[in-house]
Design goal:
By secondary structure, the chain is an alpha/beta fold. About 35% of the residues lie in helices and about 25% in strands. The strands form 2 sheets. The protein has a 9-stranded mixed beta sheet with strand order 5-1-2-6-7-8-9-10-11. Strands 3-4 form a two-stranded antiparallel ribbon.
């Protein structure tokens, strides 16, 4: 694919957030893609789950969620903050949803950014055939991979899908040595917030070659109003976010059972 074809590749997004200090190193521009294969009960971006363009009520007014764009149109926005990336070590991060649900657009956007000298990252569950992931890795500096649980049964209960493929992909990505792999764990009460469950994830991550960082991301309810705006029930409405003391305890658990550098938030 030549440069012009690359730039004209189309995809569907629902937001672009500039000046973010999350989801990768430095100051970043986060591009949120539409579509996801999981239905996590706690998802804070429920508007990302459906690939279809939707209407969501926001502050009492209808808002169209989803827009078709070219790689070129996205890069025009990303390029505006190149000076900040250079000074802070930042760049572009693809999020969602699950970026791998739009593999051609994801690959083209990452390749175009990389060829433009912009650092790339992707926040993803790895829920796709490994061949799809492997085609993207050459253009990806950092893979921020969610590992939510070790148990396939509990993973399916809370997300709608088992996790065998994702865990196997984590092993393959790490073994490839093609990108920096960082493991991220959404810490969700009633799902995976016990010391035993977090320890199991940390021990799995510790065996992945080249992996030395793990992020514990405390559950929050900031996306709850979006469910109402979409006419959906929020299944976690009775679940409170974990206390700071609990998160610190889990951090110590990770440090006790692994050699990984652990941080709360990411």
């Amino acid at each position: 694919m030549n440069r012009e074809e690359l730039l004209q590749t189309k995809g569907r997004i629902f937001d672009i957030q500039r000046y973010s200090i999350h989801d990768g190193e430095g100051i970043r521009t986060i591009v949120f893609l539409k579509g996801c294969v999981l239905r996590c009960r706690w998802c804070c971006n429920p508007e990302s789950q459906e690939y279809a363009v939707q209407t969501m009520m926001v502050a009492g007014k209808p808002k169209v969620i989803g827009k078709d764009v070219t790689v070129e149109e996205v890069l025009e926005i990303v390029e505006k903050d190149r000076a900040y990336y250079r000074r802070s070590g930042g760049g572009i991060t693809l999020s969602g949803g699950e970026s791998l649900c739009q593999p051609q657009f994801t690959r083209a956007l990452l390749q175009a950014a990389k060829e433009s000298g912009i650092s790339t990252a992707m926040e993803s569950m790895g829920a796709a055939p490994y061949e799809v992931i492997d085609s993207i890795l050459p253009y990806l500096d950092t893979y921020l991979m969610d590992i939510k649980h070790i148990s396939p049964k509990k993973h399916k209960e809370f997300t709608g899908m088992s996790n065998e493929l994702m865990l196997e992909n984590a092993r393959k990505i790490a073994a490839s040595g093609k990108t920096r792999l960082v493991i991220r764990v959404p810490v969700v009460p009633t799902f995976n917030d016990t010391p035993e469950e977090i320890a199991a994830i940390a021990q799995f991550a510790d065996k992945l070659p080249g992996v030395n960082k793990i992020h514990l991301l405390p559950y929050h309810r900031l996306g709850q109003d979006k469910y109402e705006g979409l006419g959906r029930e929020y299944l976690m409405k009775d679940i409170l976010p974990p206390e700071n003391e609990h998160m610190e305890m889990l951090k110590k658990v990770v440090e006790n059972v692994s050699r990984l550098t652990c941080q709360i938030g990411g």
